[in-house]
Prior knowledge:
- The chain has 23 helices and eight strands.
- The chain has helices at 3-14, 24-40, 45-59, 70-86, 113-127, 144-155, 167-181, 198-211, 226-239, 256-265, 286-293, 299-309, 312-324, 329-341, 345-350, 361-364, 367-379, 382-386, 393-403, 407-430, 438-448, 474-477, 515-526, and strands spanning 101-107, 132-136, 159-160, 185-189, 215-221, 243-247, 269-273, 281-283.
- An eight-stranded mixed β-sheet has the order 3-2-4-1-5-6-7-8, sandwiched between helices.
- Helix 6 links the parallel strand 2 (132-136) and strand 3.
- The longest helix has 24 residues, at 407-430.
Amino acid sequence: MFENLTQRLGGAFSFLKGNAELTPENVEEGLRAVRAALLEADVHFKVARDFTERVRARVVGERVLKGVEASQQFVHACHEELVELMGPEDARLEFAKSGPTVILMAGLQGAGKTTTCAKLAKLLKERHQRRPLLVAADVKRPAAVEQLRVLGAKIGVPVFHVENSSAPEVCARGLEHAKQGGHDVVILDTAGRLHVDAEMMAEVADVARRTQPHNQVLVVDAMTGQDAVKSAQAFHEKLALTGVILTKLDGDARGGAALSIKSIVGRPILFAGIGEKIDDLDAFFPKRMAGRILGMGDVVGLVETAASKISEAEAQASFEKMVLGDFTLEDMLEQLRMIKRLGPLKKVLSMMPGMGQLGDLDKLVDDKRFARMEALFTSMTREERLRPDLIDMSRRRRIARGAGQDPNAVGELLKSFQGMKRMMKEMNRLGLGAKFGAKAKQESLRAMSPTGELAGPPDAGGGMFGGLGGLGGLGGLFGGGPKLPGGMGGLGGNPFGGLGMPARPMGSSPTRKSGSKRKKDKRKKRR
């Protein structure tokens, strides 16, 4: 959603590159470009104006710190103001001290309110160990009740509804049912309309009066731009909202609603819907979102995603596989499936620093390629995946037929595999050196393992993100591997941390032997 804004802001910051200091003239030039970028992203004009004024107050006359470029200080000021614009950082739902917490969900039709109710129930159940009850009170839209029942069954959360009753009556009886059934959270799915009208507002206000909700949350479609801000204002006047949930943040709209809504309505963004799947709802962190908008990525979010999708044992086995150098097509298939678990590749890349500057990720990333590669893998026998050298031309044709692809696709896959093996060999040379024997490597791995044992046998699956499709080194960056010298891979002082490898062989000198020294060692061995 923020790709165009990220690129435009990057262009605005380029005005200041090479300047020794921040002056009123060059700051004004940069601010004009920032203001234009915000307005093009459909940010409310008052918000854009106030934002640039606050940035100006931060940077004009500011002394440039030693070793820090003027443009970097300007970016830092923009980052701080973006966090303030979308904050506060600690916005969250309010939970009742006794009895069930009532969350009233309101919004216009088409914003994804019913689906968001189920997503929120799943998040509260799995991450916060709550016992939610969904109340289907959207009696206006056909099949809304059935939709919520289907979603509730999918996530294992009960759904309450009373036939031929008004929405306020359904919600009031649902609250009583929750108290009797021991539920500690009640999520009320109220009716929406295509636009704000008096009947809908009266009904929602009546629901609020009868249930006294602790949280009155508005579900807003981020792709509707300034219309989302206007509807939020109308709801807030009637309901006194406590927060907002933005849906469809993975869409291709300009993102102005996300930047405008808190400033205009005065209520924080609590959660963001980032996909169509039932678990695609995340807590909204202004600092992380500001980093992504400015092209700094969201490494913390990336680590959390990996930690929730990939077990420590899998990551440990992957690292060991890379070090022991016994990488096969079977491991490459496991690696591919681990990447797919993290979600769409575009989403993963957008969380990596600097990726927002590469342009439209839709043109750079093809998730369908993963599906085609997996089809080739599964068309092979396990023996062929373990011993790629067996794959001759006749086997290539058979594998291609089974996957519905051209034999050249098998050749390309094998070529990629060989490239990955070469890369891992080089990584191994830089890490646990090739002069180490297999036994010495295993002892070093045991020393680094938290349990003191290897995660799996030498032929176990793994191969954590070893470079598939030019993504070399994602394993260490995701933080799933074992603890390494110099900090967690990609985040500490380890120059090879991003590759998930130690900076040098355990217990060895950081410098390599000279050529003459190596020749002397070889002569000694021959003797």
